[in-house]
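User: hey, got a sec? need L-lactate dehydrogenase complex protein LldF folded
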Amino acid sequence: MTLQTTSHTFLGMPPFPEAARAALANTQQRRNLAHATATIRGKRALVVGEVERWEELRVAGADAKDEALHHLPHYLEQLEENLTARGATVHWARDAEEANRIVVDLVRATGSDEVVKVKSMATQEIELNEALEAAGISAWETDLAELIVQLGHDRPSHILVPAIHRNRAEIREIFLREMGTVGRAAPEDLTSEPARLAEAARLHLREKFLRARVAVSGANFAIADTGTLVVVESEGNGRMCLTLPQTLISVVGVEKVLPTFADLGTMMQLLPRSSTGERMNPYTSMWTGVHEGDGPQDVHVVLLDNGRSAVLEDELGRQALRCIRCSACLNVCPVYERTGGHAYGSVYPGPIGAVLNPQLRGTSSPIDKSLPYASSLCGACFEACPVRIDIPALLVDLRTKVVDEASGRSPEAASMRAAAWMFGDHRRLEAAQRASTLAGRLLGGRSLRSIPGLGAWTQARDVPNPPRETFRQWWARTHGDDEEAGS
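Assistant: Yep! Here you go:
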């Protein structure tokens, strides 16, 4: 049985301001987000404060990622060599379509019509679940939050906690309404206590774990010098997917590679503290190829590009590929806390999504044009980022690109051309100044409410009133320059 979902595609999403306006009207979601992000921020602050040299650890993490990115072809080839030597099969995918085709063909080759999935943002990015469903293959999400999103015919709204916009009462209703349609039903006396909700999910998923022959995962890290893939999670569902099925297919973004196993030690200090506010990750699973008689015997790794090479070419923008998907930037962002993740039109929401999505997808769509402006540039995201991604600088750079790509058609470009023309000749400047004083006299001290082409900008700002006279006119009037005074 296939779980029928609403379309998870983000194609056709409106610009961020429009989507955010609708989200701001959802008061329940705003309460849920405010409570959840404040709780995570508090936990993170405590465990980060315990590390005396936290800043040095951030620098080490950034350096390890930069080393991999600056020599990415070398480390990817080394990763492939070590994976292959240990019995895994490596596939290369240029884009989402190619990656989906590879995974669908691999699942079909096993004769299975279902897969269990470890939480994976890469597979959400390429919309693998939809591709599998189109091929008649059911994909069961086993992460608790992802299960809530899937059963609720919803979209993820957070990198770490995809169902952060739902509260316990809403989750209970989803479980009671949906679980029985795709497997073991939730108990009729289900309450909204976390332990009871987790138990219902565990019982529902257990039958899927025990019968599944194929699992699909992502990877938090891929170690080049050993061929080891690493998945970190907090519930144990990942361990079930990575050990019970006969076939394991991992879809891994090429930027997830780390040069050495020693680099993993740095990341395992940074990631848990930054994401869940824990000193140590509850479940860390590592596998290196195939081990006879232990775990999956048919292991495949799909190395995914899907726009990452283009990001890598941008000297400033490539630092976004350092991201280790901890969600620390989301939890401190005042914009995300009020709008939630859906307004960003991607599986990657928040500040990192505002820079990563336009780089991966380009800025041709309304949503991707607007994302670089989905920030107050307060800088909290940079301070929280465990690998020191300068998100504010990337946002400013992307705003410049959006304006440049408009080829002079944007209001900003038109206003800059007009200003250049005016300042190009002192006579034009003086004429413009005299015109502004005329406007000031006509307004009679009243404030401007809007400026053509800048209405949205001026709605939230006080526009200075035009002066009744320019400095030149004041000088002429007070110093006796009759010609200028009379003009």
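Quick note: The chain has a mean pLDDT of 91. Let me know if you need anything else on L-lactate dehydrogenase complex protein LldF.
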